TrEMBL record:
It comes from Ruoffia tabacinasalis. InterPro entries: Amidase_dom, AS_sf. This is Amidase domain-containing protein. Pfam families: Amidase (PF01425). Residues 94-134 form the Amidase domain.
Amino acid sequence: MLYKQLNYHAKQTYKALSDNYNSIVKVYPQIIDHLTDNKLYYYVGLKDTSTLSIHSIQLLLSSDIFLLHTIDKASPNGRAIDPFLMNPITTFPMTGSSSGTAMNVFLGINDLGIGTDGGGSVLAPAMALNLYGFISPLLPLQKNVQNKQSTDGITFTPSAGLIAKDFSVINKTLPILQLLNKDTHSLFNPLNILEINNSLDDIVLPHSMSITNTELDTLSSRSQLIPWLEQQLKHYDYIISKEGPIDFHGLGDSIIGHFDTCTHTFQQQGNKGLIRVVNMVNATALSIPSNKLAVGWVIITQSNPNKINDLIELVKCFPVHKDELIDSYFGIS
């Protein structure tokens, strides 16, 4: 077992050092010395931002199974697209701002990415590469967090977020980060779900769930979506929206979109919906990839351990899609 682990992790580090997509700031190859024969280990990438540091993620690293492997490039000034990095699949500009963090998970360099999300900066790049993304203000992964202002003039406090190719990796972090309430049982009580624009057409949920469908223009301005989402979270346990394809038909970037009607339309065609405002209402959310490129479900809930407990169970109702061509072309062989 140890030989297989050493071989796999050595390939991860070799790929990181090669840095073919220019997504890495720094590599820590010496972490391979920590591997022993009685554990499974997960390599971690950390977004290059002042609100994240080795010190700030010490709780996760103290588990001894998560090892810091890379510091990842991020888009300048928290921009929603990264003009210096390329989406490995589409070759368009990579979605930001946790751009390198998502890319290094997608490329197999890391098993887990840690980024920050102000207005979609974790959820959007995760979705752009068909990865899982999770954000919550309850994640104890930041230090010295200060309020910021979005390009459309909204003040917010960024949350930490997690990105992984397999949801099981994110799930392993939550007990370590003390986000799960061990005294509750999931999905035994009826849950009220608000379904946006028939997002659950192909999903079978337990009969105990009460599902209400509503129509919503998820590409509306943040100033419209924020009060709407705040109000709905008071009445529903979960809000589920299917969004994307992210940054494929257009680029969801307000720097481009603010000029005129034409550029605003191009921005909207980046198809970033509620993922832009989840953090701005201090909510918790999980994005789940589908079998379509850069398209996935976003499940939004209030930020408390009981809701997160049920959210983890709710994920099991959604299909897991594996793409052998993508894995063989971009992954670790």
